[in-house]
Write a structure and sequence with these properties.
With about 120 residues, this protein is mainly α. It has 5 helices and 2 strands, in the order E-E-H-H-H-H-H. It starts with a strand and ends with a helix.
């Protein structure tokens, strides 16, 4: 609140900084990815129920990162076919192990993506 020279009270206006279309596009992409990953994790958590506690916080973080990398690497129609609500603890541990490998390599190989795709699509 600001009092001007005449003694009137005015409210200061805050303007958002200008963002380029590419900045907005990147932000939208990140938000969409985060939303998709959270929805997938929610389905996975509901599926495993109390056994979710058997997954360490570190492995949970690796799983989240791995799902984000997969979402980035594939097209949206393929993502929508994945069976997150049917994954077993064995599937989750396989995703985490591949995610750990991804962390060390720092990029996803075709073989890694194919392996992850098989797990998520139920082809393994």
């Amino acid at each position: 609140m600001i009092i001007n020279r005449c003694g009137d009270i005015t409210h200061q206006r805050f303007l958002m900084s200008h963002s380029s279309d590419s900045d907005l596009g990147r932000r939208i992409f990140v938000v969409q990815k985060e939303k998709a990953v959270e929805e997938a994790l929610d389905k996975i958590r509901r599926r495993v129920g109390d056994d979710w506690g058997l997954i360490s916080p570190t492995d949970g973080d690796v799983l989240k990162e791995t799902l984000g990398e997969i979402w980035t690497a594939i097209d949206r129609p393929r993502w929508s076919t994945y069976r997150f609500s049917k994954l077993t603890l064995v599937d989750i541990h396989s995703l985490v192990e591949t995610g750990k490998e991804l962390r060390t390599k720092r990029y996803m190989t075709d073989a890694m993506l194919q392996s992850l795709d098989r797990i998520l699509s139920g082809s393994e």
